[in-house]
Write a structure and sequence with these properties.
Blueprint (H helix, E strand, L loop, with lengths): L9 H4 L2 H8 L1 H32 L4 H11 L1 H31 L3 H16 L4 H10 L19 H25 L3 H9 L4 H12 L1 H17 L2 H6 L6 H11 L3 H32 L18 H24 L3 E4 L2 E4 L2 H6 L6 H29 L5 H13 L2 H11 L11 H11 L1 H13 L3 H9 L4 H12 L1 H17 L15 H10 L3 H32 E2 L7 E2 L6
């Protein structure tokens, strides 16, 4: 078996780490500024700065903003109202869902629940509204054809309901992970001192879960502000500012006006982000040192257990109906309240431009792999190498997620529609938009993974004479590989199904699959839209399976010995 570093050279390489780091310090910072800082400046800060300049390039900026606010005041408050209610309801619902999953008996039920919740990660946009219409709309399968009812879902509460259900799936995964990391001793001590379940829940569990609660609420609020698909499909006359921005760009191409509308929408988003960071800082100080030491065992015999389990059952049953309708509705035909199986919708599907599927897969794959690698490399430098400027770069990396998708797409149009950075109408503007829009997610996963990776392995490799590149690829990367694979999977799923920013950047030559889906929905062809949605879900699940196989091959092929060397089973150098 060949070792990466020869043990016989330890004496020769002792003390070289300091000289090695001093020698490569200038090269490292040059590489950092050229390869890492320039893309951040060019593809994140530069477009956003141009967006602000465009909004103020009018004769009277104050009057301009005042006129826009007065005209779209109702839509603006609709955005805040629907986002606030959906964030509140989805957070409350997600907490009880996670509580029910943790307290239920049997691995099969838990695995089924987690599978259905994970489906929301790979489901295309508009899918919740589409399935809701097909099941419970005016001619829905359940409401009209089964129960004979004529319901009208096109109103404010329809938007809030669908956003709450869709956001609750991802929030439940947040709370499930938070409960996994919760110190069970705190819960057990409260029960041993005689406190009932409700008191322990109110005084111990909820205060210590405040980081997950705040993250769930504020992230759902940001997603609600930037969501224009749900209000367009199911909102009816209830319009939000995000939908008005979309209609203004598509219908009138008034960039100054839409830039000002985006900045108005940015104020509540930025305020919620600041409150989130402040609350998280206080929560971290309060919960400092309360890491998971004992597994949390929730009581299964208390007054909350039965209603929580009933709520969990109906929620999961609703999810099953939702995804079943997506896959089945494309193969059904309705005639006089009778349902027939048919292949006619497949023929209608080929009337649409299905070549967008190949481009969407290529974009999602390239953005997920390159974006994850860039995010992990940048996070490694921020966490391990950089001492100053970390807050500024962290804020710059958070801007793409902070901005609504419509705002980010418009900023790219303004930045890359003329030389020397003319990218509009090309493949590259789509790729860079997907890549840098999802950078914040990858950087957060990387920071978490690096915090759990001991720096002693890196220092040991440097003592043995390894350079920075060898240390990163052969010591750091194998330890953070699971998080890297998760980042690739999440970014691929979101890149395949995202619509907010990329809808404004497509051209006649380069169209994505989500545009074909949105086109089918606009034409009222829900059967074809269901088929397209089913294909997108299957593609995401197939990519998930492929990533799992790749991860198993890598982990089974290599192992990390105790002394810190990376050794492959075949005896080859890694």
């Amino acid at each position: 078996m060949n070792f990466l570093f020869s043990l016989k050279k330890i004496g020769e390489n002792t003390g070289k780490r300091v000289e090695h780091s001093t020698l490569f310090s200038a090269i490292f910072f040059f590489f950092f500024f050229c390869v890492l800082l320039l893309p951040i400046l060019l593809f994140i800060l530069y477009p956003i700065i141009l967006l602000f300049f465009k909004a103020f390039q009018v004769e009277n900026p104050v009057q301009h903003f005042q006129d826009i606010f007065l005209r779209y005041k109702t839509s603006y408050f609709h955005s805040i109202e629907s986002s606030f209610y959906s964030a509140v309801f989805s957070t409350i619902l997600a907490f009880f869902m996670a509580y029910g999953i943790r307290s239920v008996e049997g691995k099969g039920w838990k695995n089924l629940a987690m599978l259905l919740l994970s489906m929301s990660m790979v489901s295309p946009p508009f899918i919740s509204s589409l399935s809701f219409i097909t099941l419970y709309g005016r001619r829905g399968l359940i409401s009209y054809r089964l129960l004979g009812l004529t319901l009208d879902p096109y109103h404010k509460w329809g938007v809030i309901f669908m956003q709450s259900i869709h956001f609750a799936c991802l929030n439940t995964l947040f709370f499930t992970n938070a409960l996994e990391d919760f110190d069970g001793k705190l819960y057990d001590s409260g029960r041993d001192l005689g406190a009932d379940t409700l008191s322990v829940l109110k005084d111990i569990l909820l205060p210590l879960l405040s980081p997950a609660i705040l993250a769930s609420f504020f992230l759902s609020f940001l997603r609600g502000l930037s969501d224009f698909g749900t209000p367009i499909i199911i909102g009816g006359r209830y319009s939000t500012l995000a939908t008005e921005i979309y209609l203004q760009i598509i219908g009138y191409s008034d960039f100054s006006k839409t830039a000002a509308m985006n900045i108005i929408l940015l104020f509540p988003a930025f305020l919620s982000f600041l409150l989130y960071r402040l609350s998280m800082k206080k929560a971290d100080e309060r919960n400092k040192g309360q890491k998971a030491k004992t597994k949390l065992h929730l009581d299964r015999k208390h007054c909350l257990n039965f209603p929580v389990q009933i709520l969990l059952f109906f929620f999961l049953f609703f999810q099953v109906l939702q995804y079943a309708s997506i896959f089945l509705y494309g193969f059904l035909r309705f005639y006089k309240k009778q349902i027939f199986f048919t292949w006619e919708n497949i023929e209608s599907l080929f009337q649409y431009n299905l070549s967008t599927m190949g481009l969407s897969l290529l974009l999602a794959f390239a953005a997920s792999v390159l974006g994850s690698f860039f995010a992990f490399l940048l996070s490694y430098i921020l966490e391990r190498k950089l001492k100053r400027g970390k807050r500024f770069l962290d804020f710059a990396l958070s801007l793409p997620y902070l901005l609504p998708g419509t705002c980010f797409g418009l900023a790219y149009i303004l930045a890359f529609n003329k030389p020397p950075f003319k990218l509009t109408g090309t493949f590259w503007i789509l790729l860079f938009s997907l890549l840098f829009r999802q950078i914040p997610l990858g950087s957060r996963l990387a920071a978490t993974a690096l915090s759990q990776s001991p720096i002693s392995l890196e220092l040991a490799a440097r003592d043995l004479g390894a350079g920075p590149i060898a240390v990163f690829f052969q010591i750091i990367l194998p330890g953070i590989l699971p998080s890297f694979i998760s980042s690739v999977y999440i970014q691929f799923s979101q890149g395949l199904t995202t619509a907010g920013a990329i809808m404004f950047l497509i051209s006649v030559k380069y169209k994505v699959l989500v545009y074909t889906l949105f086109d089918a929905i606009n034409q009222g062809d829900y059967a074809v839209a269901s088929l397209i949605s089913g294909f997108m879900i299957l593609l995401s699940l197939a990519f998930t399976f492929l990533l799992g196989r790749v991860q198993n091959l890598i982990l089974n092929g290599c192992r990390v010995p105790r002394v810190g060397y990376l050794v492959c089973r075949k005896g080859e150098r890694s």
